[in-house]
Structure of RNase III domain-containing protein:
Amino acid sequence: MGTKRKSSVVVDTSERSSKKHKKNKPKSAESRLKKIQKLSAELLDDPELLQDCLRKAGPDVTQAATKLLKAFVPWEDTLRPIPIPTDSQTSTLQTLPELPLIKDKTLEKATFTHQGIVGEDHVPGREVSYERLELLGDAYIEIMATRLIWKRFPALPAGRLSQARETLVKNETLAQFAIDYGFDKRAIVPADYPNQERRWLKTKGDIFEAYVAAIILSDPLSGYERVEKWLWQLWQPKLEEIEAERPGVMDKERLARKIMGKGIKIRYVDEKPMLQRGGLKTFYIGVYLTGWGWTDQHLGSGTGLNRVEAGNQAARQALANKQLIGEISAVKVAFYAKVKAEQAKNE
């Protein structure tokens, strides 16, 4: 009996050793690559997980996962833009980059649909409205705008970078993009929304943000890169405006030289209260002229991180109105020419 027990023990030990050996057997390169592919796909397919990664680690995680997935598919399958809608009435239509495709019909429908129209609660794993999509799209747009201005303006301080980013991502900018691409005509929203100016503005911005999220969710392999390239092209005119606002150029002085004179008043006033978002302050200043035949004439408006900067921007906008400034300057020149002529006559 003792021998049998000993034999039994030896057999059991051998079996355990064999199982342990199999368990510790190195995985093949193929199995590891498949695991990487699966984990990357899971990250890019899960909106909540992806948003959490974006918040904690920034866009680098998303870009790394995207590049890993690209190794498993042909590049030709990753870029399939669709043409811009031809029925849009906007004058800027022909200058817009092509609208990227949402590769999932369910997500595409949800992008333009208000939750109230659907009449059902959110179902995990299935988007039926733009309510959640716009939240994710907003996060993507914020990151892409930050990356762009960081690269484009390496000398700008943090405060000015924040202000420049706000120009790119604010509702007014995104809502205009939505109009340019005809998103407002595709929106499925309550009938009274288009009649409510502020709500309709935000709704168009929300739909644009949802569209961004839907592109990326429907194309985890290259959606992020396609959207970033598209947005960077859309933002070019805004970037040129920001570049034109060179620090150190005192447009107040230039404006004064053109239209100031004895008894003439140029006023810089707060047009609305200072707005504070987090640690960023924004001032709103307007410049007005009384004199040369004009009374409290509005010349321009500007915003800035302080009153000086906002006033300088208002003066810059005034100078850009060449017709009005030209008329005022002509009256000034004619006045002094007459004074000079009278002085010469009296001598």
The CA atoms of residues 322 and 328 lie 10 Å apart.
